[in-house]
Amino acid sequence: MKYYIIAGEASGDLHGSNLMKGLYAQDPKADIRFWGGPLMDGVYKEHQSGTGLVTDYREGAVMGLFAVLKQGRKILQRLESCKRDILAWHPDVVILIDYPGFNFHVAEFAHNAGFKVFYYIAPKVWASREGRIKKLKAWVDKLFIVFPFEKEYFSRHQLPYVYAGNPLIDALENSVALQETRAGFLQRTGLPDQPWIALLPGSRSTEIKSMMPVFMQFADKWHSTHPSDIFVIAGAPSRSLKDYNIGERDYVKVVFGETYGILRHARAAVVNSGTASLEAALIGTPQVVGYRMTLVPAWLAHWYVKVKYVSLGNLILDRMAFREFLMDELTPKALLEEVSLLTEDADYRQHMLDDYAQIRTLLGGAGASGKVAKAMIESL
To answer: What pTM did the predictor assign?
Structure first.
């Protein structure tokens, strides 16, 4: 069969690559054409089966409201190109991975053109913008969800779905970073053999601009009392060093495309809300989560977000396994106090690690990507 897959950011590229492995395993004659990145392209080249990469997401990654408005023409051109390509190639199914701003437009087009539409890693309509439920019902044939708490939500809204576990388990188990030694990681990345705090400001330009000033103020305060510690920023593959604006701080390093290794060998992590907080939990890195929306009043942000917690790990447990500092709560002082607890209070740290074990159990074991691929093929 012919599968047209669209992933528009680094996490989509990761999960798309594991989905492709599952599709090739279940359908050896699979013809896969995709928008993605180096991980998906690597799987394609390994199998040498299918049509391959159409567009690398890094060539036109645009996220955030103001970035979208600024580059609207460019986005429209990419969207029209995608539509023409789908029509010309005529796949058996269009598989959309997260990235709702772009993929909802593709879903509408593909559905109206008579193609099957699957959505893998459903948009987080349970958190905000619930009005998108109507679009999912109208344009998507089946959802493939990845969090256990989503089952009740989508059942209540009468959307057909498949839940087969979370693909992050597969991504972690297949990661080189989680197999190699600390010495090997240091040699490969050029990082010094010093204890570090991991900083994950996100991948979107608006997130990075919002989080980095607070992160750097925290780093300055921490370094003044912990001079042997350094800070390692997990740089997004689609970004450059100048995006992080670390100044002349020799105790702050930026390493791109090595999030898992950075987290694994860190004393603790300060994480922007999102998938990274769940990755930290599954890897076992004590963390504190921060989230700030620039140019948005705190009261409006709280009104916009419809969930009790902003972190996936806390949502999965339905209680707070680790602290969240949102909007005005996110201050260098708050981070300093919390990271001190994470690194110096053994009981506090162990309690968090025990909660992490429960999160992993609730997500299920490995093999989610293969199960999703099998379910997709059976649906077709």
So the answer is: 0.84
